[in-house]
Amino acid sequence: xxxxxxxxxxxxxxxxxxxxxxxxQLGRQGVTVLVGARDAARxxxxxxxxxxxxxxxxxxAIEVTDAASISAAAAEVERRFGRLDILVNNAGVLDYxxxxxxxxxxxxxxxxxxxxxxxxxxxxxxxxxxLLRRSDAGRIVNLSSILGSIGEHSDPNSPIYAMRxxxxxxxKAAVNMYTAELxxxxxxxxxxxxxxxxxxxxxxxxxxxxxxxxxxxVKTSVALATLPADGPTGGYWHLGVHLRW
Length: 245
Ligand SMILES: NC(=O)c1ccc[n+]([C@@H]2O[C@H](COP(=O)([O-])OP(=O)(O)OC[C@H]3O[C@@H](n4cnc5c(N)ncnc54)[C@H](OP(=O)(O)O)[C@@H]3O)[C@@H](O)[C@H]2O)c1
Hints:
Elements: E1 8-11, H1 17-28, E2 32-37, H2 40-52, E3 57-61, H3 67-81, E4 86-89, H4 107-132, E5 139-143, H5 150-153, H6 166-185, E6 192-196, H7 214-217, H8 219-225, E7 236-238, E8 241-242
Parallel strand pairs: 1-2, 1-4, 2-3, 4-5, 5-6, 6-7
Antiparallel strand pairs: 7-8
Helix pairs in contact: 3-4, 4-6
Bound molecules: NADP nicotinamide-adenine-dinucleotide phosphate.
């Protein structure tokens, strides 16, 4: 089985937005980046842009709601690299048009959003865990959001207190729970698992009015993906600060 001396990272949803920039920043640190994308043309274009910047980047086809796509991706990574060091579960959706409120968001919307944000994340993690266990410093970063914090949603003084995207918010709260339980399960192994809130960032999802630039929005994910051996596991982070769950 092939092994690589450089670290290998898979970033899902890396054809644009935070995922693309996370791949770029990890690549600049010498990590070989696997640019996960569900659309072959967009994924190949993103990987080729990064390769043009001198980064070791390869497109991997991965649609996180499709079990066959996930297992094909895991088989490809095993065949080409023999292991995985970093998994950034970045792919996510926020359905502004239909995720309208606790009384109006339909079950269909809840299910669709959970398919990507939660079930997809769990499926990708489970498929790649055997490869991450082969790493001497496995790192899993789960893109959550401050909108997944029940503590913030319960605090009238919180800036997000009145924000209501019930499907998105609950899917990210579920990501937080999975992160905490997985980290505890993996205690004693070389794998660390953390949840990241990137900030409110100018991407297609965050919108033009978002205050943070993408370059700053990826700092939390990149830091958690490259944690040292004495770094934390099982936390919920934004720029080095632990958020309340
Ligand atoms: N931007 C913010 O302010 C903000 C704040 C908090 C948390 N986050 C989280 O950060 C992550 C990245 O967000 P972003 O702002 O970069 O969003 P974005 O610009 O909308 O990018 C989302 C990425 O996820 C991919 N994706 C969506 N569904 C997928 C699926 N089923 N399978 C595979 N890939 C899929 C998209 O691929 P396509 O191009 O093919 O659609 C795209 O590459 C998300 O998890 C989001 O919830 C963002």
